[in-house]
Specification:
Keywords: Disulfide bond, Hydrolase, Protease, Thiol protease. The protein has 260 residues and is α+β, with helices and mostly antiparallel strands. Helices cover 22% and strands 19% of the residues. The strands form 3 sheets. Strands 2, 5, 6, 7, 9, 10, 11 and 12 form an 8-stranded mixed sheet that branches. Strands 1-8 form a two-stranded antiparallel ribbon.
Length: 260
């Protein structure tokens, strides 16, 4: 897990996800009922699940995972690279190493200005330490980046679905409570263990890869890739209730456009 918190001045009030316009609602209504980038006509566009270990580097895994998967989408799965979260943890001045960071700055500004290097250039060691990036390593850049909705606080379910389907997996953040740590399978609902402080306080970043509907109950859900290894949850993924801003997951979403 890692810490991602908004500036102190923003903590005085809660800002809910922005209501969708009629135009956005109509556009989103035309999207598929369910969608999963792990299986588009039998092809998986999502890079493999990894394990961040004891380092609070979720923001780096979420950000690098988004760029990896979006490169696959843009190149019809011909460019299948594994990028280095360690490079972000050790080398980026825009984050706090194993103490946390912001996907917006990592997937966006860091990758745009400095480039993301591949795993073999700076292998993950699960800790901070000295930056060992080699200047000769191949770098992958982003052309643009932004919050879903265009600005912080403009996000909502419909815009997230549109960004996901049209561009590829997106980075999302939410609040992890004790009950989530015990997740095994199914659609996650926060049980009320711990104080709920949505939107302004989130402590974990993950990768949104799809959405669906339980055909028996009609309950909507997101499909999300975690960074706690394949042995956790549903082979490293989890499903979480959609359309209710469950533990803040529909409040802060980021997408970037990598350059193939």
């Amino acid at each position: 897990m890692c810490t991602i918190a908004a500036p102190r001045s923003w903590l005085a009030h809660r800002v809910s996800p922005a209501p969708p316009t009629a135009e956005i609602q109509a556009t989103a209504a035309a999207l598929p009922r369910s969608f999963d980038w792990r299986n588009i006509n039998g092809i998986n566009f999502v890079s493999p699940v990894r394990n961040q270990g004891a380092c609070g580097s979720c923001y780096a895994f979420s950000s690098m995972g988004m760029i990896e998967s979006r490169l696959r989408v843009q190149t019809n799965n011909t460019l299948r690279v594994q990028l280095s979260p360690q490079d972000v943890v050790s080398c980026s001045q825009l984050s706090q190493g194993c103490a946390g960071g912001f996907p917006f700055l990592v997937a966006g500004k860091y990758a745009k200005d400095f480039g993301a290097v591949e795993e073999q250039c700076n292998p993950y060691v699960g800790g901070g330490g000295t930056c060992t990036r080699r200047h000769t390593c191949l770098k992958h850049y982003t052309a643009s980046y932004r919050y879903v909705g265009g600005y912080y606080g403009a996000c909502n379910e419909e815009l997230m679905r549109l960004a996901l389907v049209k561009g590829g997996p997106i980075s999302v953040s939410f609040e992890v409570y004790p009950d989530f740590r015990h997740y095994k399978s199914g659609i996650y609902h926060h049980t009320g263990l711990g104080e709920f402080r949505p939107f302004e306080i989130v402590n974990h970043a993950v990768l949104l890869v799809g959405y669906g509907v339980n055909e028996t109950t009609g309950e909507k859900y997101w499909i999300v890739k975690n960074s706690w290894g394949e042995g956790w949850g549903e082979d490293g993924f989890f499903r979480i209730r959609r359309g209710t801003d469950e533990v803040g997951i529909e409040s802060i979403a980021v997408h970037a456009t990598p350059i193939p």
